[in-house]
Design brief:
Elements lengths: L1 H15 L22 E19 L3 E3 L23 H15 L3 E13 L3 E19 L1
Length: about 140
Amino acid sequence: MKSVIVLTAIATLTLSGCSPTHISQPSSPLHSKVEAPLKADLSVGNKISGSAKSTQILGFINLGPSKFADGVNYGAGSEVSLFDAFAGVKAAAAYDATTKAKADVIVAPRYTIETSDYLVFKTTTAKVDGYKGTLNSVSK
């Protein structure tokens, strides 16, 4: 009798098993517009440049820079793409350019991306050229 109960329990557990359930809910994009009645006085200076290099091993191990410029839009309209494979190395190049030149922003940035793929590892180099932007004042 005990063996029948044990076999029944094993069969029940084996047949029921665990399976994940994924439910996707379509949604509309969220667009928000923030306006600030501020006026910035910006001085444009000499040409500046910066670069950064990143190495990706086996497709998931990233070796590269650890300092990045945050909040920079790379020409993706009003939204930065989450799937931009070069966003990190571009942000590191922008950080390099702004810190070396002691700039607040890069005016008219132009990025050059070079990628070398060697099957096991991939190297990406980003270079940015633009003009030094210095924020003099912000007023209402």
